[in-house]
Amino acid sequence: MSKYLNLMGLITMILPFIFFGLSIYSGYLLKKKNYSQGFNLVLTTLFLQVVAFEIGDLFYSSVNGIGIKLTLNLMKDSIVGFDFHPSHFLFQLKSNDDYLIVKFNIVAILMLFYVTNLMQEIKNYKK
Fold this sequence. Notes:
Structural class: alpha+beta
């Protein structure tokens, strides 16, 4: 097997298709008025987008649509910043210096509140 084609490489190539595929499938379910399963998948993809991190050699970040992230760099001095990201899914093992960076996606958090309120309205409407 090639040194460029290993298990981690395959996982990092497949995970984005699964992540974005869940989003497309949840939209399909919602269009077919299967609200319970559709909204559960929407919530799953939103939860996957709330936190991004870079801890040591592990890096994870996912955004479906637009991401505005509050960034906390917890190494040496605490540095706070904002990042803007288009759609992406990144999962990576790398061998760099030690990092401890946590990012909170503000758009995903707001969308979680919106979707949960919408789910409640639909449940109340059905009663």
